[in-house]
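User: Can you predict the 3D structure for this chain?
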Amino acid sequence: MRNTLILLPLVFSLMAYGQQSTPKEGFETDTFTTKSGKTLKFHALTHASIRIEFDGKEIEIDPVSKMGDLVINYSTFPKADYIFVSHEHFDHLDSTAIKTLTKAKTELITNQRCADMLGYGKTMANGDRYVINDWLTVEAVPAYNITEGHLQFHPKGRDNGFILTIDGIRVYIAGDTEDIPEMADIKDIDIAFLPCNQPYTMTTEQLVRAARIIQPKVLFPYHYGQTDVTGLPAELSGNDIEVRIRHYE
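Assistant: Here is the predicted structure, written as structure tokens:
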């Protein structure tokens, strides 16, 4: 089991409960209170896979059943109300995990390439906005490589990052991207998930630059593999960004 978390106070409108127990499946959990006083939870599953709970609803981000030695048994999870898939790579798109999490009314939201591969799904392209209901809105934003020699990994225009607005809390899940110019247009982010593993996404230096541009209140480095991200809190000290390191290897 992973260690119990002590959550630090947040700034502005985000409020964290004081102490979090590690849930029975052994994944770290961060709990916030939304602007209407409801509970919003993020479970750090692995790498780019995030489980989000809100007001009895289940949201899964890039659910993948196996990463290295870690196997996630999604059959023990509640069925998802919404599944978001950023792009087609094996560490983001897992058709078996999606099938396991799907119920009759589950909505899958992804890009065109993944919908073509799966044979279904609501497609969003960079720049699209989708008001799902009165508490959940999603914006699809660009996610791509800009370093010469890495452009083939995530070509511009194919993949998505997502900005989820959940009961007033804006959550930026960047997907596989570097510190692209479009990040200057991403505003008012409460919680950000930024990737950190070159050659596929960002170096720690790029992540620091991206965080300073976006200025989230809380930052979760994710998708970091073997990259050492332990120095990021010190590098971003003085920027009014709370950095939380979780098991998103």
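Residues 15 and 163 are 20 Å apart (CA to CA). The longest strand covers residues 39-46.
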